[in-house]
Amino acid sequence: MISKEEFLLKAYKLGIIKFGNFTLKSGIQSPFYVDLRPIASDPELLKELSQQLLNLLKKSCYDLICGVPYAALPMATAMSLDSGTPLIIKRKESKGYGTKKMLEGIFKSGQTCVLVEDVITSGKSLIETIEEVEKEGLRIKDIVVVLDREQGGVSLLKEKGYNVYNLFTIEEVVDLLYKNNLLSQEELQNIKNFLKSTPIVTAQVKSSRLTYEEKAALQSHPAAKKILEIAIKKKSNLIASLDVSTTQEVLQLAETIGDTIVAVKLHTDIIKDFSEEYVIKLKSIANKKNFLLFEDRKFGDIGNTQQMQFEGGLYKISDWADLITSHVIAGEDSLKIFDSKVGIITIAEMSSSATLTDENYKKRAIEISENISNVIGCVAQSKLPSSLLLFTPGVNLNSIKDKKGQNFNTPEKVFDKNHTDFIIVGRGIYKSTDPKKEALKYQKSGWEAYLKNISI
Ligand code: S5P
């Protein structure tokens, strides 16, 4: 491998940096212009660049490489060939939903992907790529960049928790060129003044999370379509978890807060006085107020047992539940026993401290969920591929944890960080002295967080 300086001088000869007076895309007048694309016209130099970039990543662990389109594509390809790491390709053009994929190549959610970028200015293109890649369930920790124009992009990405490794900063480049008599003292000063005086640009990035309308168009299961339609109609993404112990309390709460929610989530096995009459009453409130019935049974057994638990016993869940939760612990076949009419929500990741649902578990849970047609989404605490709806429990506006291991986030945080679809609120509502007022508060705050999430 040659030195960085030698590499730069060779690349300079190809015309990757020009000095003069240039108008940038942003309208700013710049005394230099950088374009790294010519490097691909010199295969030896491209190979050299690939080695330099791989060297920056020598302490990183990753399963895949992806270049930010288009300029970094040859670089990422060369790195893939050099390192034997599979390449994935991100499309630049927007796709017609449900037809074309945004990421091409073979990958599985949960894998770690390194991003490669040629020049970073505000970080906008990188953030758009990150969103697309993370939406498919891939993890990004490290980003490698050939040249940092020192305009705010690197700090923005670091703030968001990514490691950014850059081969050069623009300042280093001009210093090296000056040292090698390729730049006059005056030009050097001019550029340095420009760098000092140019305002830091903050990337304004359109969120790539899908809207409820877009998600409804993607979903084929009736329960998924229904919950999204209710969300749009009621301007609510709130699921109330009514973890109370009597049928009277459930019915009263359902009646009181029914207008503000998309579903009532239940743990029917904690109700003392369950009866068929209660089910009839609850269904009638659900019809009147337009919300779904969601039994949080968290099935976790072999298929044969789960089937008996779902269809039989006291509760006959299959008779009335629109949605159910199930673990994936017993493997894919155990999930195939549920009636196709019920929407299954798998438990991919739990909200409790020290949960065993680590990254690898989540990755396998997502794979299984994507293979079963009536799985409509997952309970999780981080982003999911856009084919699955994300249901987030552990939401509370007033607490950050309880004393039994539960962790809470605000609606704003779970939308902003995880692009959730539905918030699940238990004690925040049913324990309050005024559940109606509190439910309205969560409805409003969840909806505002969603609107903010789709607009940024
Ligand atoms: O990881 C999880 C999964 C679920 S479904 N963490 C959870 O808290 N839940 C459920 O969400 C939990 O069983 C309870 O019914 C609800 C959270 O209630 P809260 O009172 O903590 O808001």
UniProtKB/TrEMBL annotation:
Pfam families: OMPdecase, Pribosyltran. Orotate binds at T121, R149. The active site is at D296, K298, D301. The keyword Transferase applies. GO terms for biological process: 'de novo' pyrimidine nucleobase biosynthetic process; 'de novo' UMP biosynthetic process. Its EC number is 2.4.2.10. It is an enzyme of class 2 (transferase). Keywords: Decarboxylase, Glycosyltransferase, Lyase, Magnesium, Multifunctional enzyme, Pyrimidine biosynthesis, Transferase. GO terms for molecular function: magnesium ion binding; orotate phosphoribosyltransferase activity; orotidine-5'-phosphate decarboxylase activity. Pathway: Pyrimidine metabolism; UMP biosynthesis via de novo pathway; UMP from orotate: step 2/2; Pyrimidine metabolism; UMP biosynthesis via de novo pathway; UMP from orotate: step 1/2. Its cofactor is Mg(2+). 5-phospho-alpha-D-ribose 1-diphosphate binds at K25, R91, K92, K95, E117, D118, V119, I120, T121, S122, G123, K124, S125. It catalyses: orotidine 5'-phosphate + diphosphate = orotate + 5-phospho-alpha-D-ribose 1-diphosphate. Residues 237-442 form the Orotidine 5'-phosphate decarboxylase domain. Substrate binds at D243, K265, S351, Q406, G426, R427. Homodimer. Catalyzes the decarboxylation of orotidine 5'-monophosphate (OMP) to uridine 5'-monophosphate (UMP). Catalyzes the transfer of a ribosyl phosphate group from 5-phosphoribose 1-diphosphate to orotate, leading to the formation of orotidine monophosphate (OMP). In the N-terminal section; belongs to the purine/pyrimidine phosphoribosyltransferase family. In the C-terminal section; belongs to the OMP decarboxylase family. PANTHER family: OROTATE PHOSPHORIBOSYLTRANSFERASE (PTHR19278), URIDINE 5'-MONOPHOSPHATE SYNTHASE (PTHR19278:SF9). This is Orotate phosphoribosyltransferase. It comes from Apibacter adventoris. The gene is pyrE.
